[in-house]
Specification:
The structure holds 3 protein chains of 3 kinds. Chain A is 36% helix and 22% strand. By secondary structure, chain A is α/β, with parallel strands linked by helices. In chain A, strands 7-8-9-3-10-11 form a 6-stranded mixed β-sheet, with helices on both faces. In chain A, strands 2-1-4-5-6 form a 5-stranded antiparallel β-sheet, covered by helices on one side. In chain A, a hairpin with a 2-residue loop joins strand 10 and strand 11 (209-214). Chain A starts with a strand and ends in a 9-residue tail after the last helix. The relative contact order of chain A is 0.18. Chain B has helices at residues 6-21, 43-56, 69-77, 90-98, 148-161, 170-175, 185-193, 241-252, 254-262; strands at residues 32-39, 60-67, 84-86, 108-113, 115-120, 140-143, 178-182, 199-203, 215-219, 228-234. Chain C is an all-alpha fold. Chain C has 2 domains: 11-40; 51-267, Orthogonal Bundle (MetI-like fold). Chain C is built from 12 helices and no strands. Chain C is globular. The chains are: A alpha/beta, B alpha/beta, C mainly alpha. Chains in contact: A-C, B-C. The A-C interface holds A 39, 42-44, 69-77, 79, 81, 83, 85-87, 96-97, 100-101, 130, 141, 144-145, 148 and C 165, 167-168, 170-178, 181, 185-186, 189-190, 268, 270.
């Protein structure tokens, strides 16, 4: 996929491929365009030019005038702020995408129940979104994105609000999910642990561009200050390793 | 600074004084401000008169307040400040007198008025006689029963209903055509002038030199008409009784009478 | 010692100052209201309630203000939404025009409405040719109320929509929900409190409308004489009826404010 769009501060320009069953980890400083890139792919921001494709399905092609609206893209998206609907219960949040697709009620109950169990929210299914803790919201958002069986998964800081043990469980669940359902997945993160345990490949963004793209070890080798800090946790010029 | 609370308290009291004291216009320095409460039907004549009066009496600034006579009476009863009250009927002014709110010796009639039916110049309701007012669908505007012009209109319609020329149903069929009861006579005039009403019952004095060509006038014969008597008097609480008396003298004098006549008032 | 003195001085100064201000303000607002309540006895109030003038005005006011508010919600909500979320040429002009009735003296509004919808008016003359007259009817009362009170609703609704984070719409969209269902299932419930607040302010303004109504709709008991008109008319005759109507209006207004303050506090909008 390749997209271009004028953001207010700079031009967002990216070109990369994520294969089925593969997880790409996207890192970069705040404001480097990671979240915007996810919004572009999901169709929530119109790109200026370029090409986005999942498998055989073209989502966007500026040359041929193709633009599939966001609501028909079948992309699972977890927002940085979770965007859990505060007025709906956990159950209704997760069921939302299925209800829009006119899935029969018994099937909705079954699929939502299954996913809530996966993310350990089955006891909270009747609780309203605005009563949840950060971690509970994050898990609700993830369940809500997965329940529609998306053809592409976009995760913006998917585990940041969880405690260490829950993070580990969630990462392993995500990894298994992507591999078994065999869909491409892009994860935006600031966490080295996420990158190390999830990433099949890694993209580094800076001012709207993917400046490096490849596997983890490769990128670790030739690091900028930012990358050094990302991997090592300390400033490069004062690093003792 | 034990007494620092004095400042906010002072500010508050100053604000309170300003709030209560700042009503009305500030008088120009050296001029006496004469506040005249006048019935709405006097709007044209009194505005004219105030101008000529100020020209001949440079020390006096006339402040005019026009409203329905009843509204003015209520304002005075509730303590509004006025030097002179000019009413469109004796009822309201005498009511004030009976409450001891007027200078009794100053009260006297200064003008008479009659009522007439007016229609817009284009006459959209095709009203040419008093009998036409009964035609269903006619849009008639009169005053409310409590405002003198509305009270007089009802008296006239009643008298006409009692007369065999118009018949007993006249009163009710005309009143059935009323689309709005205005609280001042100016409200009636405006709605006819804009062409929104087919006819209105107003004072003859409302047909002024300025708006004469905007209306067709149907006179009401004296046998049915009500002669409205306009009394004037000095308000008991006036602080400028001498100046007020001077203004009343002017009103009843040669120049005042000329202006009143010009605006269609009959003179006592 | 000096430190304690410093800490103690300003609060005392401010406490007394604020206390005096608040007391005076409360007295300032409550005195005229109490003045109305003390002028009539409860028996007079009840007796006056059965006066057809009072009764007709009350019913007419409540019915017309309710219809106006309903129309305002139906028309104002989409307009507020579009102006909150979409840019189009002339949007600022539209916004300014919507706010205009807020600053226009109501009598000017009434005159303008009469010149537009009266039978000699720009639009009214067209209707009049088909035998429909608008001025001096109950419809005119409703039009006048909508004209003067729609800005209250649209301003509030627009602010509520603008405050709503776009992420909820985006989330709904990415979950496969087209704009219209998203609006009804996600956006409306989230801004409900703001919209209800705006609608209540509009209703209150419509209920109190006087100047535009008496100009455009005239003053006729049972047809166009709403409570404020009845109060003004009654002041010229039966002061008890005027006070009764005023007391009713104050009670309704008070209930409205109380409802907005307590019922909607911390409700909806997260």
């Amino acid at each position: 996929m390749a997209v271009r769009r004028d953001l207010r501060e700079y031009l967002l320009e990216a070109e990369f491929t994520v294969r089925q069953g593969e997880i790409m980890v996207l890192i970069g400083e705040n404001g480097s365009g990671k979240s915007s890139l996810l919004h572009l792919i999901a169709g929530l921001l119109p790109p200026g030019a370029g090409h986005i494709r999942i498998g055989e399905q073209v989502l966007y092609d500026s040359m041929n005038g193709i633009h599939v609206p966001a609501e028909y893209r079948e992309i699972g998206l977890v927002f940085q702020n979770h965007a859990v609907f505060p007025h709906l219960t956990v159950f209704e949040n997760v069921a939302f995408g299925l209800r829009r697709r006119k899935v029969p009620e018994p099937e909705i109950r079954e699929r939502v129940g299954e996913l809530l169990a996966r993310v350990s929210l089955e006891n909270l299914s009747g609780v309203r979104g605005d009563q949840l803790s950060g971690g509970e919201r994050q898990r609700t958002a993830l369940a809500r994105a997965l329940v529609i069986s998306p053809t592409l998964l976009l995760l913006d800081e998917p585990v940041s609000a969880l405690d260490a043990a829950a993070q580990e469980r969630m990462r392993s669940y995500l990894h298994t999910y992507v591999k078994t359902s065999n869909i491409p997945c892009i994860v935006v993160t600031h966490s080295f642990r996420d990158a190390a345990s999830l990433g099949d490949q890694m993209g580094v963004m800076e001012r709207g561009r993917i400046i490096q793209n490849g596997d983890l070890e490769e990128i670790r080798g030739n690091g900028s200050h930012f990358l050094h800090q990302f991997f090592c946790g300390c400033r490069k010029d004062s690093c003792h390793l | 600074m034990k007494f620092s609370w004095i400042i906010p308290v002072t500010v508050v009291f100053l604000a309170a004084i300003l709030l209560t004291g700042c009503t009305g216009n500030q008088a120009e320095p050296g001029k006496t401000e004469l506040t005249v409460f006048a019935a709405a039907s006097l709007t044209g004549a009194l505005t004219d008169m105030a101008e000529t009066y100020e020209t001949s009496h440079p020390g006096i600034h006339v402040v005019l307040n026009f409203d329905g006579s009843q509204a003015l009476r209520t304002q005075i009863e509730q303590g509004a400040y006025a030097d002179v009250f000019l009413s469109a009927n004796t009822k309201h002014l005498y009511a004030l007198r009976d409450q001891g709110l007027m200078e009794n010796s100053s009260i006297g009639l200064f003008a008479k008025n009659k009522l007439a039916v007016i229609t817009p110049a284009s006459n959209p309701g095709n009203i040419t006689t008093l009998a036409d007012l009964t035609r269903p669908g006619t849009r008639l505007v009169i005053g409310t029963k409590d405002v003198p012009v509305g009270d007089y209109a009802r008296q006239i319609l009643k008298k006409m209903g009692n007369d065999s020329t118009y018949g007993p149903s006249y009163n009710a069929s005309v009143l059935a055509n009323v689309i709005s009861e205005e609280t001042t006579v100016t409200g009636v005039v405006t709605k006819v002038q804009l062409g929104e009403a087919d006819a209105g019952i107003v004072y003859e004095s409302d047909i002024t030199p300025e708006n004469r060509d905007r209306f067709l006038v149907i006179s009401i014969p004296d046998q049915y008409n009500v002669i409205a008597e306009y009394p004037a008097g000095i308000v008991g609480s006036s602080a400028h009784k001498d100046e007020a008396a001077g203004f009343l003298a002017y009103l009843k004098g040669e120049q005042g009478r000329a202006i009143l006549a010009k605006y269609g008032f009959a003179l006592p | 010692m000096g430190r304690r003195y410093f800490q103690g001085k300003n609060p005392l100064f401010l406490t007394i100052g604020a206390g005096v201000l608040i007391t005076l303000l409360v007295i300032f607002i409550i005195t005229p209201i109490l003045g109305l309540f003390f002028r009539i006895s409860f028996e007079q109030f009840l007796a006056s309630l059965s006066d057809p003038v009072v009764w007709n005005a009350l019913v007419l006011s409540l019915v017309t203000a309710s219809i106006s508010t309903l129309v305002i919600i139906l028309v104002g909500t989409p307009v507020a939404w579009v102006n909150a979320r979409h840019h189009y040429p002339g949007r600022e002009i539209v916004d300014t025009l919507i706010d205009l009735p807020l600053v226009l003296p109501p009598t000017v509004a009434g005159l303008a409405l009469l010149l537009a919808f009266g039978r000699m008016g720009l639009i009214g003359s067209f209707f009049y040719d088909y035998g429909i007259s608008i001025a001096f009817t109950t419809l005119a009362v409703i039009i006048a109320q909508i004209f003067v009170s729609i800005p209250f609703y649209i301003r509030q609704a627009r602010a509520s929509f603008e405050q709503l984070d776009t992420m909820y719409e985006h989330a709904a969209k990415s979950l496969g929900s087209p704009s219209v269902p998203t609006f009804f299932t996600i956006i409306l419930p989230l801004v409900k409190a703001g919209l209800i607040g705006g609608a209540i302010m509009s209703f209150a303004r419509a209920l109190g409308e006087f100047g535009a109504t008496i100009m455009f709709a005239g003053n006729f008991q049972g047809r166009t004489q709403t409570m404020p008109l009845a109060i003004y008319t009654a002041m010229q005759g039966d002061l008890t009826a005027a006070i009764t109507l005023s007391v009713i209006l104050i009670i309704i207004s008070f209930l409205i404010i109380a409802f907005v303050k307590f019922k909607l506090r911390g409700y909806g909008e997260r």
